[in-house]
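Appendix B. One record, verbatim.
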Amino acid sequence: MPPPHDGIALFEKLHYFLTKWKIQNRIFSITLDNASANNVSVEFLINQLNLCGALCKGEFFHIRCCAHVVNLIVQEGLKEVDISILKVRESIKYVKGSQARKQKILECVKQSYLDSKKGLRQDVPTRWNSTFIMLDSAIYYKRTFQHLELLDSNFKTCPSNPEWDRLESICKFLAPFYEITCAFSGTKYPTSNMFFPCVSTAYAALKHERAYGIEYIRNIATRMLVKFEKYWFDFCDILAIAVILDPMYKFTFVE
């Protein structure tokens, strides 16, 4: 879509296609992330579709993208950045910084008897799950980094043993949220029925860690809970109906 990408332009483009395909009076809901332009476009779209008799008068029209919300919640927690995460990030940047270093790390992998195909992953700021994948891959190659530290005097960002322990704890804490993100992002199966089971799991995990977790995990969980509760009340009741219609859960789960 050419710019501008403001709310009015998005509305006009969406409405054009809905009308062209003659489905403007058959749209029940639309899933969007939390960009402010989307809120504007949805407001205009509901008003326009109501003229055609929108289903339920558009009451359940705007569904917020659950995967995006999970991303925002975990990103909030990761603002409580542990120094060990920064060290892993810098270590991966270091070994990928030149061809000679890449060759050296491959030799260390071989000497550590690990599988080189798993590979080291660099995270990106906008995708929290890339941070989880980065930590998971780094923990797998822990012995490799320690071996490199002995061989390369210029490599100064290898985490210490207590920091590796912290990384393993953080990774274990984030694992359920990674699984939830993967489940919400599925393309070959319905996902709306997964919202309540996944969110319940996440909420229980956060409350447990805030109450009983190690201090640095507790700090992360506390930040995440504040963000979580902000979005929890903003979700659409239609997602409760989706889980009721799932034979695995039915009404008992919602109760």
